[in-house]
Amino acid sequence: MIEINNTENCLKGKTILVTGAGAGIGKSAAIHFSKFGAEVILLGKTTAKLEATYDEIVKLGYPEPAIIPLDLNGATKQNYLDMANTIKDTFGKLDGVLHNASSLGTIMPFEQMSEEMVDEIFKVNLTSQFKMTQALLPILKLAKTASVLFTSSGVGRKGKAFWGAYSISKFATEGMMQVLADEYDNTQIRFNSINPGATATKMRRIAFPAEEQAKLTQPDDIMPIYIHLMSDNSLNINGQALNAQ
Ligand code: NDP
Protein backbone atom coordinates (compact mmCIF):
# COMPACT_ATOMS: atom_id res chain seq x y z
CA MET A 1 0.00 0.00 0.00
CA ILE A 2 1.45 3.35 -1.05
CA GLU A 3 1.04 6.24 1.33
CA ILE A 4 -0.07 9.29 -0.62
CA ASN A 5 0.30 12.85 0.59
CA ASN A 6 0.12 15.22 -2.37
CA THR A 7 0.96 18.64 -1.03
CA GLU A 8 0.08 21.89 -2.79
CA ASN A 9 2.54 22.64 -5.61
CA CYS A 10 4.24 19.23 -5.31
CA LEU A 11 4.71 19.29 -9.10
CA LYS A 12 5.84 22.92 -9.32
CA GLY A 13 8.81 23.39 -11.64
CA LYS A 14 8.15 20.11 -13.43
CA THR A 15 7.36 19.68 -17.11
CA ILE A 16 5.22 16.62 -17.77
CA LEU A 17 4.16 15.15 -21.10
CA VAL A 18 0.75 13.43 -21.14
CA THR A 19 -0.30 11.36 -24.15
CA GLY A 20 -4.00 11.05 -24.87
CA ALA A 21 -4.54 14.32 -23.01
CA GLY A 22 -7.70 15.24 -24.89
CA ALA A 23 -10.06 12.78 -23.22
CA GLY A 24 -10.72 10.41 -20.34
CA ILE A 25 -7.95 9.61 -17.89
CA GLY A 26 -5.30 11.57 -19.82
CA LYS A 27 -7.37 14.76 -19.75
CA SER A 28 -7.97 14.43 -16.02
CA ALA A 29 -4.26 13.72 -15.43
CA ALA A 30 -3.20 16.80 -17.41
CA ILE A 31 -5.59 19.02 -15.45
CA HIS A 32 -4.52 17.56 -12.10
CA PHE A 33 -0.78 17.76 -12.86
CA SER A 34 -1.35 21.44 -13.73
CA LYS A 35 -3.37 21.96 -10.56
CA PHE A 36 -0.37 20.75 -8.55
CA GLY A 37 1.94 23.19 -10.34
CA ALA A 38 3.31 21.35 -13.39
CA GLU A 39 3.65 22.73 -16.89
CA VAL A 40 2.02 20.06 -19.00
CA ILE A 41 2.51 19.12 -22.62
CA LEU A 42 -0.73 17.83 -24.09
CA LEU A 43 -0.24 15.20 -26.80
CA GLY A 44 -3.06 13.52 -28.66
CA LYS A 45 -4.64 12.73 -31.99
CA THR A 46 -7.48 15.25 -32.10
CA THR A 47 -6.37 18.89 -31.92
CA ALA A 48 -9.82 20.19 -30.91
CA LYS A 49 -9.85 17.89 -27.85
CA LEU A 50 -6.36 19.03 -26.83
CA GLU A 51 -7.49 22.64 -27.20
CA ALA A 52 -10.46 21.93 -24.93
CA THR A 53 -8.10 20.56 -22.25
CA TYR A 54 -5.83 23.59 -22.77
CA ASP A 55 -8.77 25.99 -22.35
CA GLU A 56 -9.90 24.25 -19.16
CA ILE A 57 -6.41 24.47 -17.62
CA VAL A 58 -6.00 28.15 -18.54
CA LYS A 59 -9.50 28.98 -17.27
CA LEU A 60 -8.66 27.39 -13.93
CA GLY A 61 -5.60 29.65 -13.69
CA TYR A 62 -3.05 26.83 -13.76
CA PRO A 63 0.29 27.05 -15.66
CA GLU A 64 -0.23 27.45 -19.41
CA PRO A 65 0.20 24.11 -21.19
CA ALA A 66 1.75 23.33 -24.57
CA ILE A 67 0.01 21.27 -27.27
CA ILE A 68 1.50 18.61 -29.53
CA PRO A 69 -1.05 17.11 -31.95
CA LEU A 70 0.30 13.73 -33.07
CA ASP A 71 -1.31 10.56 -34.37
CA LEU A 72 0.67 7.77 -32.71
CA ASN A 73 -0.46 5.40 -35.44
CA GLY A 74 1.37 7.31 -38.16
CA ALA A 75 4.20 8.93 -36.18
CA THR A 76 7.80 8.27 -37.20
CA LYS A 77 11.06 8.19 -35.26
CA GLN A 78 11.81 11.65 -36.71
CA ASN A 79 8.51 12.99 -35.30
CA TYR A 80 9.61 11.88 -31.82
CA LEU A 81 13.11 13.31 -32.23
CA ASP A 82 11.64 16.65 -33.43
CA MET A 83 9.26 16.59 -30.48
CA ALA A 84 12.15 16.00 -28.03
CA ASN A 85 14.10 18.92 -29.56
CA THR A 86 11.09 21.24 -29.31
CA ILE A 87 10.57 20.28 -25.65
CA LYS A 88 14.28 20.84 -24.94
CA ASP A 89 14.25 24.25 -26.65
CA THR A 90 11.08 25.31 -24.82
CA PHE A 91 11.48 23.80 -21.35
CA GLY A 92 15.16 22.78 -21.15
CA LYS A 93 14.37 19.30 -19.81
CA LEU A 94 11.51 16.86 -19.21
CA ASP A 95 10.57 15.67 -15.71
CA GLY A 96 7.74 13.27 -16.45
CA VAL A 97 5.94 11.26 -19.10
CA LEU A 98 2.53 9.66 -18.72
CA HIS A 99 2.14 7.16 -21.54
CA ASN A 100 -1.64 7.03 -21.47
CA ALA A 101 -3.00 7.05 -25.07
CA SER A 102 -4.16 3.66 -26.27
CA SER A 103 -6.17 2.01 -28.95
CA LEU A 104 -8.65 -0.67 -27.88
CA GLY A 105 -9.56 -2.06 -31.30
CA THR A 106 -12.53 -4.37 -31.34
CA ILE A 107 -13.04 -7.05 -28.72
CA MET A 108 -13.38 -10.22 -30.77
CA PRO A 109 -12.10 -13.78 -31.18
CA PHE A 110 -8.35 -14.09 -31.76
CA GLU A 111 -8.89 -15.89 -35.07
CA GLN A 112 -10.90 -13.00 -36.51
CA MET A 113 -8.59 -10.09 -35.67
CA SER A 114 -7.47 -8.37 -38.86
CA GLU A 115 -3.82 -7.70 -39.57
CA GLU A 116 -4.62 -3.96 -39.95
CA MET A 117 -6.27 -3.77 -36.53
CA VAL A 118 -3.46 -5.68 -34.80
CA ASP A 119 -0.82 -3.47 -36.48
CA GLU A 120 -2.65 -0.32 -35.38
CA ILE A 121 -2.99 -1.47 -31.76
CA PHE A 122 0.67 -2.50 -31.51
CA LYS A 123 1.78 0.77 -33.08
CA VAL A 124 -0.31 3.04 -30.83
CA ASN A 125 0.02 1.06 -27.60
CA LEU A 126 3.57 -0.22 -27.89
CA THR A 127 5.88 0.81 -30.75
CA SER A 128 5.06 4.50 -30.35
CA GLN A 129 5.86 4.30 -26.64
CA PHE A 130 9.14 2.55 -27.41
CA LYS A 131 10.19 5.17 -29.98
CA MET A 132 8.93 8.10 -27.93
CA THR A 133 10.72 6.94 -24.77
CA GLN A 134 13.94 6.39 -26.74
CA ALA A 135 13.72 9.91 -28.18
CA LEU A 136 12.87 11.49 -24.81
CA LEU A 137 15.53 9.78 -22.68
CA PRO A 138 18.20 12.42 -23.40
CA ILE A 139 15.93 15.21 -22.10
CA LEU A 140 14.66 13.09 -19.18
CA LYS A 141 18.33 12.78 -18.18
CA LEU A 142 18.53 16.58 -18.01
CA ALA A 143 15.92 16.67 -15.22
CA LYS A 144 17.06 16.40 -11.59
CA THR A 145 14.57 13.54 -11.14
CA ALA A 146 12.25 12.05 -13.76
CA SER A 147 9.27 9.71 -13.73
CA VAL A 148 7.99 7.68 -16.68
CA LEU A 149 4.62 6.08 -16.10
CA PHE A 150 3.19 3.49 -18.49
CA THR A 151 -0.51 2.67 -18.54
CA SER A 152 -1.38 -0.99 -18.23
CA SER A 153 -4.66 -2.79 -17.71
CA GLY A 154 -6.08 -5.79 -15.90
CA VAL A 155 -5.70 -7.66 -19.19
CA GLY A 156 -2.02 -6.65 -19.27
CA ARG A 157 -1.46 -8.74 -16.17
CA LYS A 158 -3.77 -11.67 -16.88
CA GLY A 159 -4.70 -12.59 -20.44
CA LYS A 160 -8.41 -12.60 -21.23
CA ALA A 161 -10.38 -14.20 -24.05
CA PHE A 162 -11.28 -11.83 -26.92
CA TRP A 163 -9.01 -8.99 -25.72
CA GLY A 164 -6.34 -10.16 -28.21
CA ALA A 165 -3.90 -7.53 -29.44
CA TYR A 166 -4.88 -4.95 -26.77
CA SER A 167 -4.13 -7.44 -23.99
CA ILE A 168 -0.86 -8.53 -25.62
CA SER A 169 0.21 -4.88 -26.09
CA LYS A 170 -0.37 -4.20 -22.39
CA PHE A 171 1.72 -7.24 -21.36
CA ALA A 172 4.48 -5.88 -23.61
CA THR A 173 4.09 -2.46 -22.00
CA GLU A 174 4.72 -4.07 -18.61
CA GLY A 175 7.79 -5.73 -20.13
CA MET A 176 9.12 -2.43 -21.49
CA MET A 177 8.61 -0.82 -18.08
CA GLN A 178 10.53 -3.64 -16.35
CA VAL A 179 13.43 -3.55 -18.84
CA LEU A 180 13.77 0.23 -18.46
CA ALA A 181 13.37 0.17 -14.66
CA ASP A 182 16.17 -2.39 -14.41
CA GLU A 183 18.40 -0.66 -16.95
CA TYR A 184 18.03 2.74 -15.23
CA ASP A 185 17.97 1.44 -11.66
CA ASN A 186 19.93 3.76 -9.35
CA THR A 187 19.74 6.63 -11.81
CA GLN A 188 17.50 9.69 -11.48
CA ILE A 189 14.86 8.25 -13.86
CA ARG A 190 12.24 5.84 -12.58
CA PHE A 191 9.78 3.72 -14.58
CA ASN A 192 6.51 2.26 -13.34
CA SER A 193 3.20 1.08 -14.72
CA ILE A 194 -0.31 1.72 -13.54
CA ASN A 195 -3.55 -0.13 -14.11
CA PRO A 196 -6.34 2.46 -13.80
CA GLY A 197 -9.01 -0.20 -13.15
CA ALA A 198 -12.57 0.18 -14.42
CA THR A 199 -12.98 3.93 -15.03
CA ALA A 200 -15.80 5.83 -16.75
CA THR A 201 -14.36 6.90 -20.13
CA LYS A 202 -15.19 6.48 -23.79
CA MET A 203 -12.94 3.44 -24.02
CA ARG A 204 -14.69 1.76 -21.10
CA ARG A 205 -18.10 2.57 -22.66
CA ILE A 206 -17.04 0.92 -25.90
CA ALA A 207 -15.69 -2.16 -24.10
CA PHE A 208 -18.68 -2.52 -21.76
CA PRO A 209 -21.66 -0.76 -23.39
CA ALA A 210 -24.22 -2.19 -20.95
CA GLU A 211 -22.48 -0.76 -17.87
CA GLU A 212 -23.91 2.20 -16.00
CA GLN A 213 -21.16 4.81 -16.36
CA ALA A 214 -22.34 6.94 -13.43
CA LYS A 215 -21.73 4.04 -11.03
CA LEU A 216 -18.12 3.62 -12.17
CA THR A 217 -15.03 5.25 -10.74
CA GLN A 218 -14.49 8.59 -12.51
CA PRO A 219 -11.08 9.63 -13.93
CA ASP A 220 -10.72 12.39 -11.28
CA ASP A 221 -11.13 9.79 -8.50
CA ILE A 222 -7.93 7.94 -9.43
CA MET A 223 -5.70 11.00 -9.77
CA PRO A 224 -4.02 10.97 -6.31
CA ILE A 225 -1.72 8.08 -7.24
CA TYR A 226 -0.90 9.60 -10.65
CA ILE A 227 0.14 12.86 -8.96
CA HIS A 228 2.13 10.95 -6.35
CA LEU A 229 4.00 8.97 -8.99
CA MET A 230 4.96 12.17 -10.83
CA SER A 231 6.08 13.96 -7.66
CA ASP A 232 9.35 13.62 -5.79
CA ASN A 233 7.42 11.86 -3.02
CA SER A 234 7.74 8.67 -5.07
CA LEU A 235 11.49 8.68 -5.75
CA ASN A 236 11.80 5.27 -4.07
CA ILE A 237 9.28 3.61 -6.44
CA ASN A 238 10.84 2.00 -9.53
CA GLY A 239 9.86 -1.05 -11.56
CA GLN A 240 6.47 -1.44 -9.88
CA ALA A 241 3.23 -2.59 -11.52
CA LEU A 242 0.72 -0.52 -9.57
CA ASN A 243 -3.06 -0.31 -9.35
CA ALA A 244 -4.95 2.98 -9.19
CA GLN A 245 -7.94 1.38 -7.45
P1 NDP B 1 -10.19 7.20 -23.80
O1 NDP B 1 -10.69 6.46 -24.99
O2 NDP B 1 -11.11 8.06 -23.04
O3 NDP B 1 -8.92 8.07 -24.21
C1 NDP B 1 -7.91 7.54 -25.02
C2 NDP B 1 -6.99 8.65 -25.41
O4 NDP B 1 -5.98 8.11 -26.28
C3 NDP B 1 -7.70 9.75 -26.19
O5 NDP B 1 -7.25 11.01 -25.75
C4 NDP B 1 -7.28 9.50 -27.63
O6 NDP B 1 -7.20 10.67 -28.42
C5 NDP B 1 -5.87 8.93 -27.41
N1 NDP B 1 -5.47 8.18 -28.61
C6 NDP B 1 -6.05 7.06 -29.11
N2 NDP B 1 -5.46 6.71 -30.27
C7 NDP B 1 -4.49 7.64 -30.49
C8 NDP B 1 -3.55 7.84 -31.52
N3 NDP B 1 -3.50 7.04 -32.60
N4 NDP B 1 -2.70 8.89 -31.44
C9 NDP B 1 -2.75 9.73 -30.39
N5 NDP B 1 -3.62 9.60 -29.37
C10 NDP B 1 -4.49 8.57 -29.43
O7 NDP B 1 -9.55 6.07 -22.88
P2 NDP B 1 -9.18 6.00 -21.34
O8 NDP B 1 -9.01 7.34 -20.77
O9 NDP B 1 -10.10 5.05 -20.71
O10 NDP B 1 -7.77 5.26 -21.44
C11 NDP B 1 -6.56 5.80 -20.95
C12 NDP B 1 -5.62 4.65 -20.69
O11 NDP B 1 -6.10 3.83 -19.62
C13 NDP B 1 -5.43 3.71 -21.87
O12 NDP B 1 -4.07 3.34 -21.94
C14 NDP B 1 -6.27 2.50 -21.52
O13 NDP B 1 -5.79 1.34 -22.14
C15 NDP B 1 -6.10 2.47 -20.02
N6 NDP B 1 -7.14 1.76 -19.28
C16 NDP B 1 -8.40 2.28 -19.16
C17 NDP B 1 -9.35 1.63 -18.41
C18 NDP B 1 -10.73 2.17 -18.24
O14 NDP B 1 -11.56 1.51 -17.59
N7 NDP B 1 -11.05 3.34 -18.74
C19 NDP B 1 -9.05 0.35 -17.72
C20 NDP B 1 -7.71 -0.12 -17.94
C21 NDP B 1 -6.80 0.58 -18.68
P3 NDP B 1 -8.45 11.04 -29.39
O15 NDP B 1 -9.62 11.20 -28.46
O16 NDP B 1 -7.99 12.27 -30.04
O17 NDP B 1 -8.60 9.86 -30.31
Automatic annotation (TrEMBL):
UniProt xrefs under InterPro entries: NAD(P)-bd_dom_sf, Sc_DH/Rdtase_CS, SDR_fam
UniProt KW keywords: Oxidoreductase
This protein's record includes keyword Oxidoreductase: yes
Sample GO molecular function, one term: oxidoreductase activity
Family label: Belongs to the short-chain dehydrogenases/reductases (SDR) family.
Record protein name field: 3-oxoacyl-ACP reductase
Species this protein is from: Catenovulum maritimum
